[in-house]
Amino acid sequence: MRGWLLPVLGAAIVIALPRLHSLSTHTQPNTSGGVSLVTRSTTERKSSTDLEIAGDLAGSPEGNVRYIARQDLLSLPQVSFRVGNDPNFSVPTEVSGVLLQNLVHDLAASPANDLVVAICADNYRGYYPVAYLTEHLPVLVLSVNGLPPERWPKDPERHGLEMGPYLITHQDFKPAFKILAHEDEPQIPWGVTRLEFRNEKQVLAVIAPPASEASDPKVQQGFRIAQQNCLRCHNLNDVGGKKAGRPWPILSAWAAASPDYFAAYVRNPKSKNPHAEMYPNPSYDDATLQALIAYFRTFSAQETR
Ligand code: HEC
Fold first, then answer.
1. What 8-state DSSP symbol labels residue 288?
2. What does the angle CA 58 – CA 61 – CA 65 come to, to the nearest 5 degrees?
3. What pLDDT was estimated at residue 301?
4. Bond prior to 165 in cis (omega within 30° of 0)
5. Domain 207-297 belongs to what architecture?
6. Which of 52, 76, 123, 305 is most exposed, with the fewest beta carbons within 10 Å of its own?
7. Judging by DSSP bridges, how do beta strands 114-120 and 190-199 pair with one another?
8. Is residue 12 very low, low, confident or very high in pLDDT (cuts 50, 70, 90)?
C-alpha cells in the first residue's frame, strides 16, 4: 500500500542528509543538556515503550535495572537515513534513532570496555562488541518512516509480530571480517526491550575454550564464529540468548557424540527437524563446521576443563 511513496520519500531525505559517519564524530556523550540519561531513568516501568537498561550502569549499583522513556531517547541527537542491506526491510525504509555508541558513552560505567547486549522479547540477543560499535555504527531505531513503534511494519517472517518497541539497524552494513566461510554478519534484532552494558572481556571469558585447547587454531576459529552466530540464541549460563532453549553443554554433547548430526543441523536444521526454527547456514563449508565442532567439543564433560 505505502510502497509507492517510500522510494520517493527515501530518495529525497537521503539527499538532504549528511552521512552518518560525519554525524557521529560530532555527537558527544551526555548530549542531553547536562542531565545524564541515567539520572532521568526510573526504577519502575512507566510505559510499554520504556527501554529497560541494566548491567554496568554509570552511577548505579550493579544489578540495578532502570527504565528510560522513549521521549528521553528522542531528546538525544538523532541520526536519520535510509536503511541499506537489512533483510528486515524489503522496501526502502527511512529510520531515525540514536547511535548505540552514544548510549554506551551516556549510560555505561566503563564505555571503553563494555559491549552492548540487546535483549528481545523472545530471548534472542544481539551482541555488540566495542570493535563492532565503532566499525558498523549500529543505531537503536526510534522511528520508522517517521512513525512510532505501534505503527511499524510487522516482522519480516510474517508471524505478525511487533518489530518494536526498539530495533537495531545500520545505514549500510559492510562485512569487516571473514573467518573460514563465516562472514561478518549484521546484528539486526527487532522486538528489543532491554539493553545491557557488560564488560567485554568478562563476557567472552565465559564462552572461551579452556586454556588446554586455546592454542588450536580450529578451536579459536570456532570460538569467533560462535561469538557472532550461535550466541544470539544459545547460552552458557547468563551469557547468550535463550531463544533456543539448548545451552552450550547440549550443543557440545552433539558436537562430541554426533558431529555429523551437529554439522547437518547447523547447515540445514530442517534436514534433521522439520519444525526447526533455527536459521540455516548454507554457506558453511566443511572446514567451518569442523571449526565449530572443535570449539563446542571442548565444553563436553569428557574433556577436561
Ligand atoms: C536465530 C536463533 C539461532 C541461532 C543464531 C542458532 N541457533 Fe541453534 N537452535 C535454535 C533453536 C530455536 C533450536 C531448537 C530447535 C529448532 O527450532 O531448530 C536450535 C537447535 C540447535 C541444535 C540441535 C540441538 C538438538 O538438541 O537437537 C544444534 C546442534 C544447534 N542449534 C547448533 C547451533 C550452532 C552451532 C549455532 C551457531 C553456528 C546455532 N545453533 C545458532 C536457534 C538458533
1. H
2. 85
3. 60
4. yes
5. Sandwich (2.60)
6. 305
7. antiparallel
8. very low
The cell for 149 is 513503534
Section 79-85 average pLDDT: 92
97 pLDDT band, cuts 50/70/90, is very high
Give the model confidence (pLDDT) of 30-67 as tens digits: 544 446 788 889 999 999 999 999 999 998 888 899 99
Neighbouring C-beta atoms of residue 4, cutoff 10 Å: 9
Query: Which residue has a Cα nearest atom 2 of ligand 1?
Result: 233
- Give the residue from 62, 64, 137, 135 showing the smallest Cα distance to 103: 137
Mean pLDDT, rounded, for 276-285: 97
How distant, in Å, are the alpha carbons of 20, 162, 194, 245, 289 from that of 159?
32, 9, 22, 20, 30
What does the domain layout of the chain look like in residue ranges? Answer: 5-199, 207-297
- Region 5-199: CATH code: 3.90.420
Four-residue CA torsion sign, 261, 263, 265, 270: negative
Q: Which amino acid is at 258?
A: S
Helix (H, G, I), strand (E, B), or coil: what is residue 197? strand
Residues in contact with ligand 1 by the CB-under-6-Å rule are 226, 229-230, 232-234, 243-244, 246, 250-251, 254, 262, 265-266, 269, 273, 276-279, 292
Q: Which three cell numbers stand for residue 271?
A: 534436514
Pairing of strands 239-240, 235-236: antiparallel
> Of ligand 1's atoms, which has the minimum distance to the CA of residue 250?
26
